[in-house]
Each structure stands twice: as structure tokens, then as C-alpha cells.
Amino acid sequence: MEYIVSAHGKYAEEMVKSCQLITGKVGQFHVFNFSVDMGIDDVVSGYEKIVSGFSKKEKFCFLTDIKSGTPSNAALIYCQLSNKGAVYTGTSLEILVFLAMGEKIDDIYKNIEQFTGKLEIRDDSDEEEEE
Amino acid sequence: MSIADKGIKNIRIDERLIHGQVATMWTNSLQASRIMVVDDDVVNNKIEKMALKTAVPMGIKLSILTAKGAAKRILEDRYIGQKVFLLVKKPQTLVELIDYDLPINKIVVGNMSSREGRRSVKKSVAVSQDDVEAFNYLKTAGVQIVAQMVPSEPEVDFMNLLK
Hints:
The structure holds 2 protein chains of 2 kinds.
Chain A: E1 2-8, H1 11-23, E2 29-34, H2 40-52, E3 60-64, H3 70-82, E4 87-88, H4 93-100, H5 105-110, E5 128-129
Helix pairs in contact in A: 1-4, 2-3
Chain B: E1 8-13, H1 20-30, E2 34-38, H2 40-43, H3 46-55, E3 61-65, H4 67-75, E4 84-88, H5 91-99, E5 106-109, E6 119-122, E7 125-127, H6 129-140, E8 144-147, E9 156-157, H7 158-162
Parallel strand pairs in B: 1-4, 1-5, 2-3, 2-4, 5-8
Antiparallel strand pairs in B: 6-7, 8-9
Helix pairs in contact in B: 4-5, 5-6
């Protein structure tokens, strides 16, 4: 699976860079930086250019930053036009790291509550420790 | 019996203990079933212990032990059949483990932060003279010492970096 990480400003690029600090280099992430001077057609053609670099059999999906944002809207349009791909939004560093670890994207989103939100302090005594 | 037969899958020096690289890529690629933090100071620090317990990835057991306690437990064969990922902050702790007769044959050097009195030997690894002496002691004891930040990076001979 190839992932096109697309977001406002340089969020996508920097998120992938930060991910690689943790995971080492990840070949399946492809970045699209959306700047406000672009129109939606520019974004769609940007996606076309990225996807044209994939082999025909390769599956891909879009990882966008925010629902209803242009990166996400353009991804939806691209998927409809080409009848390929899927769009996931709400991409975070944590999601990229899980993908780099080989987790399946649908499993990550299904279990998202397990690793996001308020951290509950674990100070249970069933761990092995010495005083 | 080798240390691997005793259930110790990997031994890593990483000053930040359980952090991004360790909790994700390392734990995953080693398929670790237990993370063992060996550090006398951490054992006596309630707040640091709480943070480690909260940071340990789900489903992974955690031990927080002194060098003496860890050596005793490992030599008692308590971890046979497990996949223990042993973490220390500094090479001196491994010297202690060797002196407690733990048959360590290989260690991986991860993050050692730069600060006054330390010289940088590679990206995010800096050593003091005391650290160098500890590494020399480990080398003389027959330990293979490699540097590797994340599993996808190749291992490099750490002693060559100290020259």
C-alpha cells in the first residue's frame, strides 16, 4: 500500500519527517503540500502526478489532515474520477508511526481510542519492580 | 547458557528509556514481551516509574529493577521463554551487570544525549571519559558493541566511533 500524505502548509511533509525520526526511512509515504494559492484542480493534478509514479497494481490511499479541507476534497474527487483509492482524514504522527510499523489502516482507525486522548496514569503494582 | 537462552532478546543503552523509537519500532521488530528497565536511580524515583508504566506499550510487561536485582532474576532463569528487551541509561550499568556474572555478549547503543563533558561520536550519541572507560571494560569482557538508532538502520561498530 502506498500512502499520499496531503495537508495544509507543510504539515504533511513535516509529519512524515517527524515520523521518520522515530521509525527510520519509510518508502510508502508520498507527500503533497497544499498551499493556499492552489486551486482544487491543481491539487487533483498534483495527486495524478504522484499516482503516476506508482505501478498499476499498487494500491494507494490518501491521508489528509482535516475533513472538508481542500487536500481532502481534492482526494475525494481524484478517487471518484479514477475509481481508485480511498481517503482517510485526521492524520496524525501516531497514525503514520503505526502504518510504518506495518499495521493495517482500518485496524488503526478502529482502535484509535486506545492510543489517543487523555493519558490515564498507570501506577499499578502488578508490574515487577523493586523499591 | 547464553543470555539469549535466558530470555534476553536485546540489550540497549538509551538514556530516554521508553520513548518513541523504543516503544514502537524496536519493541515491534524484536516482538518483545517484556521491557526491563535496569537503573538503580529509576527504581527509587516514583515519578519516573509512573511515567514508564504509563508509557509502556499495551500488552508488554514491564520490569523496573536495580542492576543487582536484574542480574539475580535473570540468573535465576525467571525469563526463559520470554522476549525481554533490556534497557539501561548508561554503559556503567552494563559494567555492573557483567560484574554480577551476566553473560552479556552484545549490546546496542542508542541515544546518549550531549551535555558538558561529553563529546559527540555520532548523531544523538555523546560520551564522557567515564563512558569511554565503561565501553572499554565491556569490550575487554568480550561484549560486541554496536550503534543502531532504529531497526531499519544498519548496525555500526561502536568502538570504531570512539577512536
